[in-house]
Amino acid sequence: MSYQAVVRNSKGAVVVSQEIGIRITILQGSDTGVEVYTETQKTVTNKSGLMSLEIGINDDFATIEWAKGPFYIKTETDINGGENYTITGTSQLLSVPYALYAEKSGTTEANVINDEDQSASGLWSSEKIKAELNAKADTSSLATLATTGSFSDLTNLPTTASEHGITDVWKLTEIKAPNCF
Question: What single-letter DSSP state applies at residue 80?
Answer without folding.
Answer: T
